[in-house]
Amino acid sequence: LLALQSAGIDLPPQLALTVGPDTRLLVLAPHPDDEALGAAGLIRRVLGGGGSVRVVLVTSGDAFPEGLEAATHVRRPTARDFRYYGSMRERETLAAMEALGVKRSQVEFLGFPDGALCYIATREPNAKAFESPFTRRMNPPVPEQVIHGSQYRGADVRREIEAIIAAYAPTLVAMPHPEDHHPEHCATNIFAQEALDALKRREPRRMPR
Q: How far apart are CA 7 and CA 15, in angstroms?
């Protein structure tokens, strides 16, 4: 990007960023690996400019039977197997982020249900908590709850993302595109946009890019 800019080539608006010590990047990823596949270059760019980075994983990517079988050779997985696979994917994210220079304290897992974000995004905000058919959980693991008592409900996903944005006060947010065809990615955008809209109503001057 720097080479293109130095050559006098105009960048698309999405890439024409100026980063520095005041840049605070928040990466909202639906699954472990999306943060690296989607934003590794941006993360390195912000860190290289002296800015700060926080990475948030909305799910642990546990509802992936094919991936679980490939990783563990278990053909008839139980809820315990899916939970273990989610923790494995979380560890992979931590290793990838460490390689990019992101510390463990800057990575947060929310533990919401993989394979169901789109479904709970379309339900009534305070509907009965959804139970994952994979992990058999109805709420994020207690250590991963940003708001104590959060359950697998749309209102709780929105509240947690809003709380993270309000506390971290990012200047820049990276998240899936609203037209992403993957349902978990699209739902992550919906929840994030609703959280940003709530922030805009309260503190319009703090809106990140």
A: 15
